[in-house]
Specification:
It is a single chain. Helices cover 42% and strands 16% of the residues. The protein is an alpha/beta fold and 455 residues long. The strands form two sheets. The protein has a nine-stranded mixed β-sheet, with helices on both faces. The longest helix has 27 residues, at 2-28. The N and C termini lie far apart (104 Å).
Length: 455
């Protein structure tokens, strides 16, 4: 009798064993973020209105029309007077940058954030198994990852990946890479470093499509520590729930809407065309078609199918129209790429001022720091003590190519640590963002501009 019972029970016990084994394997594949450190440049790099004006007026190629365009763009950009510029630009050497300038800029950002990351997390460089560095506009030999390995004397078996050319959404691409590596390697610790090489890519011509990048992009960076070791789960800040990448590179118009090239006069720069909003809307639409069923509750999906007929493709402000994203998400971490991107995304997802406040304030305080921008937004949420255990955070990014990379995080603990916002968080939110450029420099006309250039 006991033998028969054992025979009958064996299949069920075996199935239970397989299910248990699968669940254990899934737990090993989780991606936890343990710590992150954003970069705060020295105060002598701060781009006040006067410093910005001096940088603009140094460009002898600008006429009064270009000057007025810059004036209008800076005023409407959503960027304040506390952002930071690269050292060589602040010192007036943007016309002839050197490789030393580029490496010095990267070393300062990368090593400052990593030093703090190791110090505050308690991890040693020798405990890191995977290292990913993403800087889109700088590729050196040896690579930037090799510079990190050399500086911290990391183990010879550390897995290193150097990502270039991926633009503002590269941070999520790096995390996606780590997440896939975590699926095949147990108990791994990984670091992602996100920044951008601004100083040696400062545009010095007069084409308006290129000048826009000078108005938006600023110096910054972030280092993050991840693990799939479930025994470290209690130390995690957030856990990755899902991640989705969309690429419209096959579409010629989308491919060329953000493009690094030379202008008609031979000056290199980063061109942002009028097709960018349309490309962003198309990429966002395709991404949400797959992402939404994974992040919103079934009742909201059913309601949407009943009241709506189709997705809107042509306008960023209408992409998610009809869906109530707040049924499954508490916080929206929108890349602070510019005021138009933040506002357009907010309208499409039907978000209010409270939801958009972190991205708007990060743009005002730090500017567009490219792939590092998310983490300044997350830092704002943490500094304001918004992030509670169990909350969901949707990160939304756009990047050259054209790409839309989004992911959902779950908050693992009440987040309230001190961070890079410490000395300025009490000044935010700013109810009305006023840029003083028009007030201080609108008096400049052709004659005065010529006089300034001559002197």
């Amino acid at each position: 009798m006991e033998l028969l019972t054992a025979i009958y029970l064996f299949p069920f016990l075996y199935i239970a064993f397989l299910i248990s084994k699968r669940e254990i394997k899934k737990r090993d594949q989780h991606c936890y973020m343990l710590h992150y450190e954003c970069f705060k440049p020295p105060e002598d790099r701060r781009l006040s209105t006067e410093k910005c004006a001096s940088v603009v007026l140094r460009n002898k190629r600008l006429g009064i029309e270009e000057f007025r365009y810059l004036l209008k763009t800076i005023v409407s950009s959503g960027i304040g007077e506390s952002t930071y510029g690269p050292k060589n630009v602040i010192e007036g050497r943007e016309e002839n940058p050197t490789l030393s300038d580029a490496l010095g800029e990267m070393d300062e950002i990368i090593f400052a954030t990593l030093d703090k990351l190791f110090d505050k997390s308690g991890f040693a460089p020798s405990e890191i198994d995977i290292l990913v560095v993403n800087v889109s506009l700088l590729a050196t030999i040896p690579s930037l990852t090799a510079r990190v390995v050399n500086r911290y004397k990391m183990r010879p078996d550390v897995k290193v990946y150097n990502i270039t050319g991926m633009g503002c959404s590269a941070s999520i691409i790096a995390i996606d890479l780590i997440h896939h590596l975590f699926k095949v390697h147990k108990n791994m610790n990984a670091i992602v470093v996100s920044s951008e090489s601004m100083g040696t890519n400062w545009y010095t011509g007069k084409d308006r499509s290129f000048m826009l990048s000078n108005c938006l992009f600023r110096a910054g960076g972030c280092s993050m520590l991840f693990t799939n070791n479930r025994h470290l789960k209690h130390r995690a800040l957030i856990k990755l729930s899902c991640l989705l990448r969309t690429h419209l590179g096959a579409n010629e118009e989308a491919y060329k809407c953000c493009y690094q090239k030379e202008d008609d006069d031979g000056f290199p720069g980063f061109c942002l065309t009028r097709h960018l909003p349309k490309a962003a809307a198309q990429a966002f639409t395709e991404n949400l078609k797959v992402l939404v069923p994974r992040i919103l509750p079934l009742r909201e999906l059913i309601r949407y199918l009943i009241v709506s007929k189709t997705w809107t493709k042509g306008d960023l402000e209408k992409v998610g129209r009809g869906l109530n994203f707040k049924t499954g998400i508490q916080h929206f971490c929108i890349h602070p790429g510019g005021r138009a991107v933040i506002d357009g995304t907010g309208k499409g997802l039907q978000l209010d001022d409270y939801d958009l406040e972190p991205a708007r304030m990060a743009l005002h305080r730090w500017g567009n720091t490219s792939a590092a921008g998310f983490w300044y937004v997350l830092g704002y949420m943490e500094a304001k003590k918004r992030l509670k255990k169990g909350d969901k955070i949707l990160m939304i990014s756009f990047g050259a190519g054209f790409k839309c990379n989004n992911c959902l995080w779950e908050v693992m603990t009440d987040m309230k640590d001190r961070n890079v916002w410490d000395d300025s968080i009490d000044n935010y939110p700013i109810k009305k963002i006023v840029n003083p450029f028009i007030e201080r420099y609108s008096w400049i006309n052709d004659e005065r501009l010529s006089f300034i250039k001559l002197n």
